[in-house]
Amino acid sequence: MSGFDVLTRGDVLDLALKARDYLVSCGVPGALAAKDPRLWGRRAVDHSRLGWLDLPFASRGLLNQVDGMVAEARYSGLDHIVLIGVGAESLAAQAIMEAHAPAVAVGSGAPGQAGQGPPGGATGELTVLDGSDTAALAFAMERLDRTLVVLASKAGVSLEGDAYRRIFSAAFRERGLSEREIAGRFLVITDHGSPLHDFARQCGYRIGLTDPYLPGHYGALSAYGLVPAVLAGADAERLLEEAASLVPSLGKDEDNPGLLLGAVIGGCAQQGPGGLARDKVLLREPGGPGALSNWISQLLAVGTGKRGRGVLAFEPPGGRGDFPDVHGVSINPKSAAQDDSDTSVWAPLGAQFLLWEYATAVAGWLLGVNPFEAGSTVVQESEDDAATMLRTAGTGPLTAEEPVYVEDDIEVHADFPWPPGAELRTVLGGLVASVPGDGYLSVMTYLSGDFSGRYLAPSMARGSGRPVAYGPGPAYPHATGPVHKDGPGNGAFLIITGDPAPGDTLASHPVPGRPYSLAKLQLARALAELRALRERRLPVIRLHLRDPVEGAGRLTESMRSVAGARRP
Predict the structure, then answer these.
(1) Range of the domain at 301
(2) What are the tens digits of pLDDT across the range 158-191?
């Protein structure tokens, strides 16, 4: 696919055209293309925060630098790339691998499958470790002799990054590698001058530096997205060409797909004549939800989730129903005639990245928020809280909180009195009923197995009559936390934790040099998220599965019964 287009229809078209005319009358397209920071008010945005507009061309030099690293890695037999990154730092690379090297393994929460790279490229694999599961870690540990570890973070080393780094270092050491050889197995991608930069230099790791002024959620075409994918065999040069082909249209008042898409997103998110804001987007991809949808979700959440506003994206399993405040967006649908979404977006992946970044900037302008600001501290606060819990607990338990109720080895943790005679369906029904008429439900799973919120989403959507967002922790709350906590504040949350699955030694074994295991780290992350949501007085409950396999099935059945009882 070489072209790009945005097609919208129905009442969304009316909203989009009005918003686009307003944007043109205010000179937004030309000012944004010229990287004029005054669009968001004097001193609100530094000129350098708009450098993402130059990446389709500026990153070509990066590829020349990476070529030598790829050749060296292949000569050394390192064709399995492990990417350690939570949230935005890993999503773009995953999307690139899915689109440009569909046969190459991509693991995130599940083991990948070996395969051939793109035509003319080197064979390679990419496994992503984002703290959500140990299956991908197990897959990577089986390939240590071929593995190069990429640690990506704009700031310091995350809790998960520290744990995985220690696990791999110890595993390499057990294989007989010297400290110098171990250092050669790590590549750090971070901002120039960041704490991770200093740490990596002390460790002797290879370092790839990025622009510290570039917003993290706008880094898909920077080293964060490109380098891991290139090392794994993706064709990043073609990706940049795709993005560059879009650039000439972004300064136009007409025939500007980025402007129209931004007008759709931002125009719908503003309150209409009836007081209803269509500030929720249902993303559809032809092959089902993929890494691109996840990347778009975090871009919109971080870019617009501020000061009581924000756009939240959902996937089809959580969008079962007719919701007046949700509009559908199809990404590269096979046929416009067969697509029933409000808006359709056609573009190759490189152009998709730039198109959505531009559209998020436009939508932010319409909503009166600065999409490039560093964002609130909500994400870092939760990580710091988890770190404090782990440090305080030492080798002991994280919490002494007793469940208010236990049913079939499923613990219910809630901060409200438990009524006599209640059961699991009662609390699930209460959570479903607590969602405001313009709100949504969110399921965050902190489990080592493959149980996902997608199994609960259809029943929860039917039972509540509201859309349901879901994702694994800590990656999902890390990527979308701003819109949940700083946005409209109309979400209700279900956090699911669990004991390690039987035989999952990677989850239960202590992290080298730390008094906790990956399972304990995962639980600390969940408890910190729970506390952050409670502090904001958002409805939230935690269910802990003592037996994650049996408990997942019972929980799914309970949710289906709630949906059946509440269905009109």
Answers:
(1) 5-27+253-367
(2) 899 999 999 999 999 999 999 999 999 999 998 8
